[in-house]
Amino acid sequence: MDGQRIIGINYPQLRALCGISGLSESGISQSSVDAHEEFMNLYQKIFLQPKKIPPGIPLGRESNISHASQTLKAMESQARQERNRNRPQEKQTQEMLINHAIRALKKRPIERSQKDLQVILKMLKMFPCLSTQLPKQELNKISSIGVVETWDRSQILFGHDGFFLMLKGSVKPYTRKGSREDQNKPAIGVGGFFGSFEPPQSEDSGNITQCALTLEVCEIFKISHSGYAKLKEDIAAKDHAMKESLIKSCQYYLSWPKLSINHLTKLIQLKTFPANQVLVKEGRVCSFVAYIREGECTLLQDIGALIHPAKKKGVGIKSVVVRRLGCMESFGEVSVLQEQPSSCTIITSTELQAGIIQPEALRDLDSVTISLMLQTAQPTCRKLSQEEITKEYMRQEKSKEWDHIKKRVLSDALFYNGIQLGCGK
User: How many domains does the chain fold into?
Assistant: First the structure.
């Protein structure tokens, strides 16, 4: 009793239990029946029962939750203050950029430097109305044709001849009829716009041409319909010339007439493929015709199942490099037009930029162009015999092994002379 106490035992009750008269001592004599029954009825009282905690949140946990809630509110408040603190700086930076762009836009387009065009483009990218409506190629060129106009207060702007973007000031939608709806429409501030890039398709649609009434002195960026149309024509002509040059650079199309090349140019789509992507699998029809602009492809042929003589177990499919394709080369013409399975697997060795033509578009060409393509184009690679593939595979494996030996010998020689690559002695 006086020794080490055990947690969970009611020692006063244990002493009272041990003091029952009639219990046996040291196992010498038997306990009486009455003492035994009394002991069995009372022995459970020597164990302390845990206190029952009523349902609810303990005060300690409640305080922790309250503390966590206060901490979260403090963090949210701090973040809100940080945003509010940064907001004036962002607004100031935006206003400075707009001012720089306005100064550049007030120059004639021919007088704008490359730096001016970059400032204008950076400003235009801030406004979603431009970045979401215009393709990237047009957005990059729009800075060279846009102009800025300054309008005094209470002047009417007609939006039928171009696209107008608010840089400073505000305007309110206005119609010739002066309807009540105009009074309920919100004002158009910085970043807002009216008008359109292209003329409306129909003037009889029932919609009145949109106009705007200036509420203060305004600086407005304008893109005229004629300027935008000229920009689209220039981009289309440049794109057409690039695709035409891409086809002409391939060896099979050097002597083609211009009319037939134009037919193919209209069908080409430019696409970029990452390195190590399988473009064509051996035994399958090519999924497109490709004209390589930049990058390189590797052509592989399977050499079947090889049994490793050392292990005598495990079968692996090996491939041998039969050719490489680079710039100014094409593939897939014969496979697509004649639906012939490809005799090799084509994998991109580097990032590949190519112009591709889908099979559906190619088959819709006129018969003269298709016949001309079948006469001039050749299969991407011929099917090698098993003996040729095996010889080429052995040659490439020996070349790899020899390169490995040279690298190892050179590395050992440098190491024994105390030379580390990139560090010297």
Answer: 3
What are φ and ψ of residue 402, in 5° steps? -65, -40
User: What are the residues whose beta carbons fall under 8 Å from the beta carbon of 271, sequence distance 6 or more?
Assistant: 353, 354, 355, 356
> Which range marks the domain in which residue 253 is found?
249-384
* Residue 262: burial class (beta carbons within 10 Å; 0-12, 13-18, 19+): middle
316: β partners:
306
Examine the pLDDT at 250 and tell me if it is beyond 70.
Answer: yes
Supply φ then ψ for residue 45, to 5 degrees. -75, -15
- Please check whether residues 278 and 372 belong to one and the same domain: yes
User: Which pLDDT score is estimated for 131?
Assistant: 84
Residue 305 lies in a domain: yes
Asked if 17 and 123 sit in the same domain, the reply is: no
Cα–Cα distance for residue pair 195/294, rounded to 1 Å? 41
User: C-alpha angle with apex 15: 14 to 21, nearest 5 degrees?
Assistant: 110
Two tokens at 397?
């494996």
Residues 373 and 378: their CA atoms lie apart, in Å, by: 9
CATH code: domain of residue 345: 2.60.120.10
| Residues 111 and 20 both lie in one domain | no
Cβ contact 179:236 at 8 Å = no
CA 342 – CA 336 distance, rounded (Å): 9
Q: How far apart are CA 305 and CA 316, in angstroms?
A: 6
Instruction: Kindly state the tokens that stand for 98.
Output: 């707009």
pLDDT in tens, 148-181: 999 999 898 888 889 999 999 999 988 766 555 5
Bridge partners of 220, per DSSP, are 149, 166
Check whether residue 287 and residue 375 sit in a common domain.
yes
Radius of gyration of the chain (CA): 42
Cβ–Cβ < 8 Å for 412, 419: no
What's the rounded Cα separation, in Å, for the pair 331 and 337? Answer: 12
Q: Are 300 and 319 in contact (CB under 8 A)?
A: yes
Inform me whether the pLDDT recorded for 415 exceeds 50.
yes
Establish if 95 belongs to a structural domain.
no
Could you tell me if 174 and 293 lie in one domain? no
| Tens digit of each residue's pLDDT (9 = 90 or more) over 329-386 | 999 998 999 998 988 899 999 999 999 999 999 988 999 999 999 888 887 766 666 6
Tokens of 161: 């001849």
SS3 163: strand
